[in-house]
Design goal:
The protein contains five helices and eight strands. 31% of the residues are buried.
């Protein structure tokens, strides 16, 4: 019985440690230079984020939390898209492209979706392995917050409001 508690404690510490590590990397650090290949074959780069507040969400169709949070991600995009907010969902390298396309079409995702076939984008963004992992990038292209797991969307909306009110340059 004691070994079960010990294992549970080690697992909890590992999860908290990963969460703290991911969060600690999200001060006002520049978003990594990345090229995203969108489902339509076009490309977007991190430089394209400048002047907008952008939510970058690493997800997978096999991730139940990712699928569960997607309606809130859609609602967030719809709520702020006309105010200089954008969303980019990045499908993990292990997610079959046909599954991603089917998910996007069946759920009518209104924002851009990229395939990270090589895993290089996830690696550049802090070696993302846990999904969902979400990053909030300000108008200057800096990561200001990151979440592992579904964010508290009420808190996220307050942060987006604050960031949208900020000037693009400081």
């Amino acid at each position: 019985m004691a070994s079960k508690h010990w294992i549970a404690g080690v697992l909890a510490a590992a999860v908290l440690g990963v969460g703290a590590w991911v969060y600690s990397g999200a001060g006002q650090s520049a978003a990594p230079q990345s090229t995203f290949v969108l489902l339509d074959g076009s490309q977007q780069t991190t430089t394209d984020f400048k002047g907008k507040v952008t939510l970058v969400n690493f997800w997978a169709t096999s991730c139940t939390t990712c699928v569960g949070e997607m309606p809130e991600v859609i609602n967030t995009y719809q709520k702020y898209k006309d105010r200089g907010f954008d969303t980019l969902a990045v499908a993990m390298s292990y997610d079959p492209p046909s599954y991603v396309v089917n998910f996007v079409e069946s759920r009518k995702l209104p924002f851009k979706v990229a395939l990270d076939n090589t895993g290089q984008v996830a690696k550049a963004w802090g070696d993302v392995q846990l999904t969902p992992s979400t990053f909030i990038v300000n108008k200057r292209g800096e990561i200001v917050k990151s979440y592992v797991g579904a964010p508290d969307f009420a808190e996220l909306h307050k942060l987006i409001e604050k960031l949208l009110a900020e000037p693009a340059t400081v």
